[in-house]
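note to self: dont lose this again. the chain is below, predicted strucutre after it. 304 aa total, dont forget to put it in the shared folder this time
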Amino acid sequence: MTRLCGTLAAESPRRGILYALSAAVLFGASAPFAKSLLGTASPQGMAGLLYVGSGIGMALVRALRPGERADTLKKKDLPWLSGSVLAGGAAAPILLMNALQRMPASEASLLLNLEAVFTALIAWLLFKEKFSARVGMGLIIVIAGGILLGWHGSTRLSEGWGPALVAGACVAWGFDNNFMERISRSDALQIAMIKGLVAGSVNILIALALDATWPSASKLGLAATLGFFGYGISLVLVVMALRRIGATRTIAAFSMAPFVGTIVGVAVFGEPLTWLLAASGALMALGVAITATAPRDQKIAPAS
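---
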């Protein structure tokens, strides 16, 4: 972990891809396990426990990290960090936990691929960034897979809020990714620590105000551990990837997270593997592959 947060050297972009894929494995596996821990617990309480676990874990790791921290966050970074905490640390987890109460984790995991779509659209429309025509084609294919799953999957009409809540979480994480890129040169452990502690505390306070239910004592430690790996270490790896390959390619590689979640949901928790789920996954995998391998030339003009 210490080496991950050292000074940035001239490295191959492959290192950034490796960081993003490793983050995807950790975060993707966390969704079905979080669903298994929910039980009668409230989404707000579970989201708070996951983030507090990540924040405390990152604080301990950072305390043991030797050397000076020349890359610590500056005052000018605070607006971007605040936006990241609110969007990705408060809003998105609550939306996702509510979605997981309404639909199978395997379907929710696949719909999380929409995060790449919203990340690219926000970067293009609001931050005037450019991306290639091939990236655009890949994102359209990802959208098609999400529509196929959300409209015609095993989710019943009475559970239609599930896909909508996942999409809302993806919008929030799309803003989060763009905010995070602007501070990605700062200390990754510090970013993950602050985000975890602040977002976790906010969610826990909300849960207490709503008189929410909590997981059993035996599950509290499991939730904190899951947060440390699935939210804390995963976020550190994402920041390291953003430094090297930028937001579009990072999120394209990170979009493998839903497939990890789907595999865990099916293999570990016995959720059904239907032909529609497989078809949606194949479409999304194709879109992610096209996006991740897109050349950096052939630019689409930024939105005016």
